[in-house]
Design a protein that fits this description.
- The chain is of the alpha+beta class and about 150 residues long.
- It has a single domain, classed as Nuclear Transport Factor 2, Chain: A.
- Helix content is about 30%, strand content about 35%.
- It has four helices and six strands.
- A six-stranded mixed sheet has the order 2-1-6-5-4-3.
- It starts with 13 loop residues before the first helix and ends with a helix.
Length: about 150
C-alpha cells in the first residue's frame, strides 16, 4: 500500500496499530507522531470531546499544539479489536503538564480505514474533565456529586 508517491506502508490492522501507537508515546518526553502521519488520509475527520477537525493538515497542527503543551505524555493500549474496516482500542493516557502532577485519562479510539488503507476517520472518547478533576483534592468529589445529581 502506498500514499500515492509516498513510501510503502504496512497494512493497518490490530498489530500495526499497537506497534505504531507504542512508538508515538515515549516512556519519557514528548510524543512524536511523525511516523504515523503517512497512515492518515488527506480528508481525515478527527473528533474528540473537545473538537472536530477536518483534514490532515489541521490534524497535524492539533498534534503539534498538544506536544507543545505537554512536558510528557504516555499511552498504554489496554485492549484492541477489529471488525472489517473499523479498529477500536481502549487506552490509558498519562499527561504531565509542567508543574502539575501526572494525570491519567481513560478512553478509547475508533478508527475507520478507507478503501485505500488509510485512516479516514478517528473518534476519541474520554472524560477529560472528570479524569483531571479526580486529581484535585475535594474538588473531584464535588464534581462527581454535581454530575450524578444533574445527569444521572
Amino acid at each position: 500500500m502506498t500514499t500515492g508517491t509516498g513510501p510503502v506502508l504496512a497494512p493497518l490492522n490490530m498489530e500495526t496499530i499497537r506497534e505504531l501507537w507504542s512508538q508515538t508515546y515515549n516512556t519519557q518526553g514528548k510524543p512524536d507522531w511523525s511516523h504515523i502521519f503517512p497512515y492518515y488520509h488527506k480528508d481525515l475527520v478527527f473528533q474528540d470531546t473537545i473538537q472536530r477537525i477536518d483534514g490532515i493538515e489541521e490534524f497535524i497542527e492539533m498534534c503539534n499544539r498538544l506536544t507543545a503543551r505537554t512536558k510528557e505524555l504516555k499511552m498504554e493500549i489496554v485492549s484492541i479489536a477489529q471488525n472489517g474496516d473499523v479498529i477500536i482500542f481502549e487506552w490509558i493516557m498519562t499527561i504531565m503538564f509542567g508543574k502539575w502532577p501526572n494525570t491519567p485519562i481513560y478512553g478509547s479510539t475508533k478508527l475507520r480505514i478507507s478503501e485505500d488503507g488509510l485512516i479516514i476517520e478517528q473518534r476519541d472518547y474520554y472524560d477529560l474533565w472528570g479524569d483531571i478533576f479526580n486529581n484535585i483534592p475535594r474538588f473531584g468529589k464535588l464534581y462527581r456529586r454535581f454530575v450524578r445529581k444533574r445527569f444521572g
